[in-house]
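Methods — Computational structure assignment.
A single polypeptide chain was analysed. Its primary sequence is given first, followed by the predicted tertiary structure written as structure tokens.
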Amino acid sequence: MTSTTRIGTTQSSHREGTDISTTNDPAHPTSTSPFDWRRRLARRLWVTDLLVLIWVVYGTQIAWLGHGRTDVIKDASAPLPDTSYWFFSAGLIVAWMWALTLIDSRTDRVIGTGTTEYVRIAKASFTVFAVITIAAFLTKVDLARGYLLISLPAGIAMLIFVRWLWRQILVSKRQNGEYSAKVLLVGSEASVRSIATELRRSKAAGYVVVGACVPHGQAGDTIPGTNIPVMGTVNAVEGAMRTSGADTLAVTSTGDLPADKVKQISWQLEAGRQHLVLAPSITDIAGPRIQTRPVAGLPLIHVETPRFSAGERFVKRMMDIGLSTVGIVLISPLLLALAIIVKLSSPGPVLFKQTRVGYHGHEFRMWKFRSMVVNAEELLSTLTTSQDAGNTVMFKMANDPRVTGVGRVMRRFSLDELPQLFNVIGGSMSLVGPRPSLPAEVEKYAQHVHRRFLVKPGITGLWQVSGRSTLSWEDTVRLDLSYVENWTMMTDVVILARTVRAALVPAGTAM
């Protein structure tokens, strides 16, 4: 059976740069210890959290109550001393910082990737204010409601924003292999190769593979199809950890290992400084769908099948209608200007209408601003041998001669996609979803790819913000299916935010 813990959520000890302590004595770590960066980053996060809360809480107090000595109002019978808001704000900051620490919002297991870090910040913040509200009610203290109602959302927003800034720094470091765990993989060659591929694809998670131990491995060999050095057999884990300087051991499969081998491996690790990660062979499955349920000592993994409840569909539809309507109203002058420019720049209609395949395989008419010459579809057959981008299913060209001058600019900033907001209001598309497919492309789909039709196609999606024209067909399918099977409202919010950033600062992948 495969393991129970996902790589993306169970990080362990990390290192900074390429320096590593050569001592094996846990009682005398050197200054170049691979574990120093984790403590240093946690301290820096603590300092910035404190500065944010001081600024937010005292700023809100001054804005709402003024600079004077304002006392907290309490009932005359309440057995509490008179307290000014200056002192109360200090206590609020201390309690807030304590809650952020207790919920482990600064641990390396959650920072740098995923939404867990942000969720913990929000959870700790709401808990503090809930406790304060209940305590104020029980002690008959009348706290200024505006002061609390502003401090809570402002504090959460600023904490998350500053943590996001730290994440950008951390991600940039991890792209160069810094601030990352050195991972030794243990398992079959196939599982090692699969997990290593996923880790390389997600450098922001903070894992660098330094070697592998396989059932019949010979030291000095490499895993076929990779440059991962083989450090020996699964019985040489302790020496391989020491030789490679790894601080994390990831078991990629257990089927090829002797009984109780994983337990024996865990006993060999240095307590508190080396960590064991069990990496399941299933990939692209989000955390909410995975439940670990111990049964008679066995950590059984339950993977829930994708569910799309009526409530979730309703919320997503309301968000689509609301944001699309507001968007059309706000950008109506831009839409009018683009329509005029397209009409005057080249002969032909302003809008390009094309048949696409959407929800449950139903066809619909998708609208875009025309960015190509009128006979673009007729010219396609003459260009198939010149394709230099896209993939085996989707046709793309870096310098498609059918694209007009104005169209090239619109495509670079995704302006040609704006009329699809009307598709969203009409119900044939969503703001976020898989790419709307052409009927000719659907004919080439493997059976499993049809799962992308479980949701409405989107103006933007996971593949669009992950490379677009530079992705292979396999990666495009993987991202689309990952979105379909692991959809959450937070996922949509993150993708929309990344889309806005990509549109404002295009990276050259739009074609």
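Note: The first helix runs from residue 36 to 65.
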